[in-house]
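Reply to dn_fold:

You asked what the input looked like. This is it:
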Amino acid sequence: MESALYGALSIFTGNAHPALARAVCDYLDVPLGQAEVFEFSNENIFVKINESVRQKDVFVIQPTCSPVNKSIMELLIMLDALRRASAGRITAVIPYFAYARTDKKDQPRVPITARLLADMIQAAGAHRVLTLDLHAGQVQGFFNIPVDELTAVGLLCDRVRALGVDDLVVVSSDIGFAKRARNFAELLDAPLAIIEKRRYANDGSSESLTLIGDVQGRTALIVDDEIDRASSLVGAVEVLERRGARAILASATHAVLSGPAVERIHRCSVQRVITTDSVRLDPHKWIDKLEVVSIAPLLGEAIARIHAGTSVGEMFRTPAAQLKFISI
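and this is what came back:
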């Protein structure tokens, strides 16, 4: 596969989520690039690209998921190695962008870590970034290189629609997510409700306070971009139970599931959690309530379009149920 502007397409990955990279390569029918990425006993990371990338169009698939800081360093060092190997263009494919919640100074004397990470990715050698459902959309503006932000909302809605629920109400887990929750509601032809939530500390804890909307006797679908410690999810479930929801489902793009999240989801009354494979889901985090939708076709189609110099936005200009991925 040759680009009009760059050489052949090459895809590489670190250790953050190699299964996702292989699935993308299967979709595109290209081999996964050969590289060594490992950690010495002194915790220094070593990278060696084991094939020529001179003037090629290179994509590095590396979500910055757990272990977050190691995944970030692998990405940065791979970008530097590819730049020094004379790659024609380098795209950092970051399905999950860590530190995106640190997008502004909301307290005295705190950093804007998302901006710092953006600066490091550019300095390491990335010419563009491909990402998915950023926690804060303004992170795109932290880069001085092109950023394509995809969304998994269409894929998640397709799966929810397949459940055949006819009394659905979409519930935004907090006011800040209401605009994107509205997209869920429109695609599912369902009403929207919103939960008011407040955070009181820097440890991720929150309290769900009130519900705006009617869920009485209906199936509620809680939507969010990320499930981290699951405190917001559990709080939302409790509010919906008190307000008479008949059944409760949940959906989020990124299943980080840190700390007590798995146990909290297991114990609460949410019946099903629909998510994606944007981050690697370790076996000890798997529970029967989880259902994972693959984003490999979504990433693969975007990579093919970027490589060919055609529109990525066209992928989302038809209803999700009518969207057909066409490999280029």
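Residues 90 and 127 are 5 Å apart (CA to CA).
Hope that clears it up.
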